[in-house]
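Observation: inputs received (chain + zinc ion).
Thought: call the complex predictor directly.
Action: predict_structure
Action Input:
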Amino acid sequence: METCHINITRTLDSSHSKQNIPFSFTIPPDTTQLALCLSFSPWLVDGHRNMLTPTLFDPNGWRGAGPRQGARHEIVLSRASATPGYLSGDIPPGEWTMVVDTHMIMPGVPLPIEIEIVGTDETAREKTQAAEIRKTAPRGRGWYRGDLHGHTDHSDATWQVADLAAWARENKLDFCALSDHNTVAGLAAWEASGSDELLTICGSEVTTFYGHALALGVRNWIDWHVRPGPHNQNERTMNHIAQEVEAQGGLFIIAHPRSVGDPDCTGCDWQFESMMPGSARVVEIWNENWTGHMAGNEGSLALAFEWLNQGYRLALTSGTDTHGPEHNQSAKIFGFDVVYADELSEREILRAVRQGHLYSSAGPGLELNAATSQAHAMMGDVLDVAADVPIQVSTVWADCPRDAQLAWIVDGVARETRSVEGNGSGAWELRGGQAGWCLVTVRDAQGAMLAFTNPIFFDGRANG
Ligand SMILES: [Zn+2]
Ligand SMILES: [Zn+2]
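Observation:
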């Protein structure tokens, strides 16, 4: 039996692009199932996509989001089930709001939108099944390989939570993060799909109109409605988001900062001038296909070098940003992060990443160490060293293809490049006060990145 039937129409144009437009409506008591549909037309203008997505709030707060492409967004909610991206549960009566997030409205063409809401009191037949959280048995101090960035059908990927977990196991990953765009609806199922072999790290990708960031180790929805600035005093900023994530014990990572942006990849490039890198200390510089260009990885690497040279002690990561089986095929090469952590747990993996105790690789093993007669540092560490004191920098590589090029980079400049193959090791000498940081990269004979370490920092010059 229908309890309500509401139709809302409005015509938008490009002046409404990059806004969050609220539409409120009242749901009567005794509604047990709610069907909502946001539709608009045209989808394509001159080959570019209009992108409008819903975020839904019930009277108690955030209820879900559907950040995916398409001109028709259908949502069905009941106590026992929900469209991916949204939370199942009771349908409380009162004021609900659908916020229409206008990621992109192409200029020149008016855009009529329609929101249809149908409430019914059909009692759902399915039984609610609480997902059981699986604890991964900690394995102690060691190297752990995994992925910090991936999506499911809870946002815009084609596969489900179980498929992402199966993919992680096929790739023999020790850990894998779920970071759907602006939704945490998949996390209960994700957490339940962990095991002793696979640590499932929870999070989301804070996907704004002006750049993306990973919020890992955080299970609640993050209000991502921020502008790049200038800001008035009471306005929410990206810096507030970063602080919120860290205050909850999570890890904030600027994602693919030099990706292509509008209109090809709407909002994908990092435009937050006060977060260059501002309070951020971790940057995903290698994203998606390791040899591709869409993600702008060489640009992100150059940006990170700039920030390191300004004295920021950054940790550098990679992420597959996998969106499903189609995404993983077609001769793409992926890399993973290899993290030295005290144990295989969400807290310790994220802590080690924050400390820069990792390298990223599409194949080769790669380690970097530095030492004086007094002290030792691994990747991510600071080596305290007085002026002129000799520093031994050493690197170890493994499984390098023929004619791989290993570069020793000091303060952003390649100090030495050598051809390497298979397994080996090398050493260089520096003197205290001569350099701020160094790291090592391995590229193939054509120059494509195969692996990079995190930097080791020297002396007290860094901003911290
Ligand atoms: Zn992204
Ligand atoms: Zn992503």
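Thought: report the result.
Final Answer: The chain has three domains: 2-120, 136-356, 363-464. The chain has a mean pLDDT of 93.
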